[in-house]
Amino acid sequence: MLRPQFKEIKSYEEVSKFYWYREELQKICKQLGLDSSGFKADLNHSIEEYFNGNLVRSVKSHRLTERGIHYTKSVVTTHLTLQTSLLECRFCFNQRFRDFFSEQTRIKNLRFNVDMVATARKVKETNDTTFTLGDLLDIYYGKKTYKKYDKVSLQWNKFVQDFCADPAAYLFPNKLKTTARLWKIVRESTREKVFKHELLDEFENKI
């Protein structure tokens, strides 16, 4: 089954059967009027909530001018400490919080890890007012577990690794190009998003 256009899809369960790039999810969210910022997991969550009847919008505030109402992103002025609740400071993965964690860890240009992404999402879903920035720092260091990241976003990398590990891969002079062709077939179908040697035989004429 080939992947249909998003407008033809009727449920999130159907969305989950196919692989979507982050850029595709961003475009879909923008078309639906949903928050299109954040990581791939955040975009998937927005789309899942859309099918549940909940619209995840960007956090905005408005001010009245002579020409009408103009919308601008809200500014949160809460002073950040390790005891600050994620919900209280409206935590998101932006430069403000990256700078805060860089200061705490002494790591310049700190990168949020995938378990931090999953955890922040879970905190917001469950409205956990007790979870703090200090707790999220413990997630970064691996000192505690709250919510593990769904590794679905890493499927392409694993697909490439498994293809290259197959002895038959040495028969193809351009391994990445061949992998991409196979991946496109798998990505746009309801097949399991993993590499199997049988794919080389099944789609010999297409690679």
Shape: globular
User: Describe the biggest sheet?
Assistant: 2 strands, antiparallel
Helix proportion? 40-55%
With helices defined by DSSP (H or I, 4 residues minimum), what is the helix count? 9
Provide the structure class. Answer: mainly alpha
Strand order of the largest sheet: 1-2
Mean pLDDT across the residues is 84
Q: Output the helix-strand order.
A: HHHEEHHHHHH
Distance between the termini: 19 Å
Rg estimate, integer Å: 21 Å
Proportion in β-strands: 5-15%
Count every beta strand, where a strand is a DSSP E run of 2 or more residues.
Answer: 2
Low-confidence stretches are 60-77
Describe the model:
The protein has 207 residues and is mostly helical. The protein has nine helices and two strands. It has a two-stranded antiparallel sheet with strand order 1-2. A hairpin with a 2-residue loop joins strand 1 and strand 2. The longest helix is centred in the middle third of the chain and has 13 residues.
